[in-house]
Structure formats: C-alpha cells, structure tokens
C-alpha cells in the first residue's frame, strides 16, 4: 500500500513499485527544468523515505497495535529469535471486508465479478437440474449431512469441554503445592505423564466416535475436530511444561547467594519468558485463559496474544453470512457436479472420471479454503479480538509442495514448526545419543539438521493424516495418504539440489498447479473406486463421495 506522509494522495494511475520516491516539489522542479524525473531505484527510495514510504501489508497492519504492544516490541523480537514463532497484529491477505474497513477497494470489482459469475453459473446449473429431475436442489446429500445432527452436536460439545482437563493437570502436577517430586517438569517423567494423558484422551474420543454409528460425513468431521483439539491440548501442555521448568530454574537461581553476572542475566532471560507482555506465568493458568485459547483460531499456545480494541459485530455478521453462502455453493457443486460423475465411474473408467472432476474438485478445494480461513477463522478471531489474522500466505504462488505446506494453513504449520520441526532440529544438532551407533553417526554427518527435521515433520504429518482417515472411514486405505505425503520429501530435495530446476520459478509454479488440479480428483476417484466401494448392492455413492471429498480436503488442510 502506498501511504503518503505529507503531500497528498497519489493519482489513481500511480504505481508505488515503479514511481520514484520524490517529494512533489522536487518532481515539479525537475519537470520545469526540462529533465525527466529519475527512474525509481532502491537508493532513491532510501533517500526520500522520510517524505514518502511504501508500507507492506504486514507493516501497515502493525500500526493497529495496542499501545502496550509497541512498548514491548523488543521483548517480542527477543522471543522470536528463541522460538522462531510469534504473534503480532496482522490482517489476512484476501480479507475483502478488512480491506474495505481500511479504505482500500482495489479488489472490489474483482470480488464482485467473481461472485456474480459464480451466482450466474449456479442459477444455470439449478435450472438444468430442475429440467432433468423436476427439482432445483438434490436432497440426498442433505439428508445424510443432517442425520443424527443432535447427537453430533452434543458429542462435539463434550469433546471441546473435555479438553479443559489440561488446566488442573498443569496446576496440580507441575506448579501446585502438592506437586510430586518425581514429576519435575524438566525431566522425562513429566513428558511421559503428558504423553499418557494425551494418548488416553485421544483414544477415548476415537472409541466414542466408533460406537455412535454415525454416517460418513459425521465421522469425518468429528475425526478432524478431534485432531484439531488434540493439537491444542498438546501445545498447551508442552508450552506450560517448559514454562514450569523455567519457573523452577529461576527459583533455584534466585536462591543462590551472591549470584554472578551470568546468573543474573539468566534470571532476567527466564523472567522475560515467564512474563513476555503484561500477563505472568503461572497466574495465567486459569479456565478463563484456556477458554480464550480454545476459542482463538490458533493451535500454538501463548501466555498472551495481541488483541484488537473492540469487536465489530457487523464484520462478524458478514462472516457468518459468507460461511452460509459458501456452504450452499459447496453443496451444489458436490451434489450436482461431482456425484453424478462418480456414480458413472465404473462405466466410463477412473481416468475419464478424474478428468471430468478436475474443475469441480478444484472449485471445492478453493471453497474449502475460503470457508475455513476467510470466513470461520476470521469470524472467531473477531469474536475473541485475536489480532493476528495471518492464517495463510500467498500459497497460490507456491513453487512446490513444501512452500505450499508452509503457506496454505499457517496455524497447522506453526504447530508443526514449534512442536515437531524445532525440537527435532535441536536434538539432531546436540544430542549425544547418536554417538552410540555407527549408522546414526554417519546419518548425522550426511543429513543436515534442517533435512532431518523436515523429514520428521512430514513423517508426523503423514501419520496424523493416515490415522484420521482410518478412524473416520473405519477402513485401512493401504497407506495411500501416508505414502503420498512422504513422497514429497525426495521431490523437495530434488527441486532444491538441481540448480536449473531451482531457478525455474514459473515452471515450478505451473507444475504445482497441475499436480494439485489433477491428483486431488485422482485420489478421490481412487478412494471411491477401491476403498469405499463395498461388494454388496447397498453401495451409497453419496456417502462415499462425502467422506472422500472431506478426506482429500483434509489433506490440504493439514
């Protein structure tokens, strides 16, 4: 965004990236003297930065900080160096409503044009369906989605409320007065106790889901929501276990008599971790603090998040309306454009069905993105006054699956980076356990820590995908999701090591889009044709399609 500081707004045809950063008086003097204004260069930009400046999307949103956030910016930067992940006030790149609130309407016509075309196409599609079937909207998928809806809502509410066990767990075992001595949060026993608690909670709710007799759609939704809540539980317990260890270490250092300068510096460092902003650990260990974390669209727990000053209820209403509208479009595309082709797949073949589904599947994928990250996530962020709205980056410019995985879903990416990638990287760098095996020593020498951490992250993500799909479908799918995820690692390494391929940015982006448009419907057809097709006449293509679409979309979501 081009923000004038002194001399008025630029004209509508001005380009902030090409225009020289000069004051108006200097440009008029140059034109009057007969010499053209100089071409824009980085040096000119630096020279006239005091008069005019280009503020990026994130920097402009940073001006919305609360006053205390600006005063604590230095503490935040120190924390970012340590953890590599931190939150700050930012807006979503494609949040059209937020841009309108900020007074920017550059994409207004594009958004209006897009949804007008979508609406016109849907009207034509509904009319064609009425001419052929005597009804505007297919009802088969709706009856499946809303069957046993009351049981699903109550079970999901119980799932969310049950995660509150983490608050007494932390207070009693790690920071309470009656804390067992053998459960020091800095030792492996505490980590083992945390793993047992998380695994027990996860197994209980997966078994609960299996006993309800839900159709495919309910099972897939509940399995995905269980995985999301487990990530919140794990982040809350892991972060607070580290903070409890820092609290004990700080108490031990303060107990020393005549501490040295290094000890005093360590105490200050630990204090900045325990109180990065205005809230201090362990006073933050309350049900209210956890409830706010549960409602925030974030999977990485922090003591305190950047907040907005108030709730814009009009913004919330618009996001709710957007969620309902996109869901209707999603339903029409699935029921009218996808299910008919899948019903005829055994007649026309898998590959031809894949070609027919490339357009509808890509449309469902984009609708899933907008309803999840633009409508639902931004709506909950506004209700909780959660100021960091950077739920995604420019994933459409991705040059490979590794870049796409970082930019498509930032909440999950931040969780994997904080709790999988960084710990494995540090372990690979400094662990002495690798010295006991010759094979591990050679592997450590040949594989950089970043590659080892990336492989571990993809392995964990692949296992999480496979378990979620198996639980949702009650069927092992021959590890297709697992192997499809793990096969990304050699592709990523190849694209980085081969210099010619690394430099072909446009070609790599084309390759990414071709792979996403083709392989998602291919996976859908393969799962529908092989894994979800019973050999009995009771085959229901609506149920099969619903869970398959949800499964393929969940792959991109994770």
Summarize the model shown:
The chain is mainly alpha-helical. Helices cover 68% and strands 1% of the residues.
Structure description:
With 558 residues, the protein is mostly helical. Helices cover 68% and strands 1% of the residues. It is built from 26 helices and two strands. Strands 1-2 form a two-stranded antiparallel sheet. Helix 7 (108-133) crosses helix 15 and helix 12 (216-254) runs parallel beside helix 26. The two termini are 31 Å apart. The model is unreliable at 1-25, 27-83, 534-552 and 554-558 (pLDDT under 50).
Low-confidence stretches: 1-25, 27-83, 534-552, 554-558
Helix share, percent:
55-70%
Tell me how many strands there are.
Answer: 2
Given helix and strand content, the structural type is: mainly alpha
**Number of distinct helices:** 26
Largest sheet data:
2 strands, antiparallel
The order of strands across the largest sheet is 1-2
Task: Note the gap between the termini.
Answer: 31 Å
Strand content: under 5%
What would you call the shape?
globular
Question: Quick check: average pLDDT?
Answer: 76
Provide the succession of SSEs.
EHHEHHHHHHHHHHHHHHHHHHHHHHHH
Rg for CA atoms: 27 Å
Topology overview:
Elements: E1 2-4, H1 24-32, H2 42-47, E2 52-54, H3 57-62, H4 67-71, H5 73-83, H6 96-101, H7 108-133, H8 140-145, H9 149-162, H10 166-173, H11 188-210, H12 216-254, H13 261-274, H14 287-295, H15 313-343, H16 345-348, H17 350-383, H18 401-407, H19 410-430, H20 438-446, H21 449-473, H22 480-486, H23 488-497, H24 499-503, H25 505-531, H26 541-557
Antiparallel strand pairs: 1-2
Helix pairs in contact: 7-15, 9-12, 11-12, 12-13, 12-21, 12-26, 15-17, 15-26, 17-25, 17-26, 19-21, 21-22, 21-26, 25-26
């Amino acid at each position: 965004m081009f923000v004038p500081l002194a001399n008025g707004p630029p004209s509508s045809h001005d380009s902030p990236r090409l225009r020289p950063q000069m004051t108006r008086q200097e440009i008029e003097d140059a034109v009057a003297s007969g010499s053209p204004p100089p071409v824009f260069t980085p040096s000119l930009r630096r020279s006239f930065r005091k008069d005019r400046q280009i503020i990026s999307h994130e920097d402009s949103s940073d001006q919305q900080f609360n006053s205390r956030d600006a005063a604590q910016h230095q503490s935040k930067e120190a924390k970012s160096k340590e953890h590599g992940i931190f939150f700050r006030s930012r807006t979503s790149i494609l949040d059209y409503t937020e841009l309108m609130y900020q007074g920017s309407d550059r994409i207004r016509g594009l958004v209006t044009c897009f949804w007008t075309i979508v609406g016109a196409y849907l009207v034509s599609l509904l009319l064609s369906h009425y001419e052929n079937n005597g009804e505007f909207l297919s009802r088969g998928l709706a009856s499946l989605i809303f069957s046993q809806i009351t049981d699903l809502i109550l079970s999901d509410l119980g799932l969310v409320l049950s995660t509150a066990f983490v608050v007494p767990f932390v207070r009693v075992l790690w920071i309470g007065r009656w804390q067992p001595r053998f459960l020091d949060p800095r030792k492996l026993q505490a980590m083992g106790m945390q793993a047992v608690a998380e695994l027990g909670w996860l197994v209980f709710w997966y078994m609960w889901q299996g006993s309800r007799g839900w159709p495919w759609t309910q099972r897939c939704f509940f399995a995905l929501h269980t995985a999301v809540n487990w990530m919140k539980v794990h982040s809350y317990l892991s972060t607070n276990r580290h903070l409890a260890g820092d609290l004990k270490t700080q108490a031990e250092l303060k107990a020393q008599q005549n501490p040295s300068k290094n000890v005093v510096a360590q105490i200050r460092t630990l204090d900045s971790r325990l109180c990065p902003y205005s809230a201090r650990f362990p006073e933050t260990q309350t049900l209210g603090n956890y409830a706010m974390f549960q409602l925030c669209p974030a999977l990485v727990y922090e003591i305190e998040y950047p907040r907005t000053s108030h709730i814009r209820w009009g913004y919330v209403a618009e996001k709710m309306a957007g969620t309902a509208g996109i869901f209707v479009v999603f339903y029409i595309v699935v029921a009218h454009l996808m299910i008919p082709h899948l019903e005829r797949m055994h007649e026309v073949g898998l590959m031809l069905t894949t070609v027919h589904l490339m357009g509808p599947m890509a449309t469902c994928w984009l609708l899933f993105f907008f309803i999840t990250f633009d409508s639902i996530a931004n709506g909950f962020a506004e209700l909780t006054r959660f100021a960091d709205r950077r739920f995604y980056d420019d994933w459409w410019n991705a040059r490979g699956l590794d870049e796409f995985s970082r930019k498509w879903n930032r909440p999950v990416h931040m969780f994997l980076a904080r709790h999988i990638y960084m710990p494995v990287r540090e372990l690979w760098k400094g662990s002495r356990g690798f010295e006991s095996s010759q094979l591990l020593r050679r592997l450590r020498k040949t594989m950089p820590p970043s590659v080892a951490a990336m492989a571990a992250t993809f392995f964990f993500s692949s296992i999480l995908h496979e378990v979620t799909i198996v639980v949702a479908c009650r069927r092992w799918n021959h590890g297709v999701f697992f192997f499809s995820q793990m096969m990304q690692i050699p592709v990523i390494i190849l694209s980085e090591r081969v210099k010619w391929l690394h430099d072909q940015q446009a070609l790599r982006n084309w390759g990414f889009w071709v792979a996403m448009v083709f392989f998602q419907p291919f996976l859908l057809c393969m799962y529908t044709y092989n894994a979800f097709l019973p050999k009995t006449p009771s085959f229901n293509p609506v149920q099969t399609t619903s869970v398959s679409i949800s499964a393929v979309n969940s792959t991109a979501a994770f």
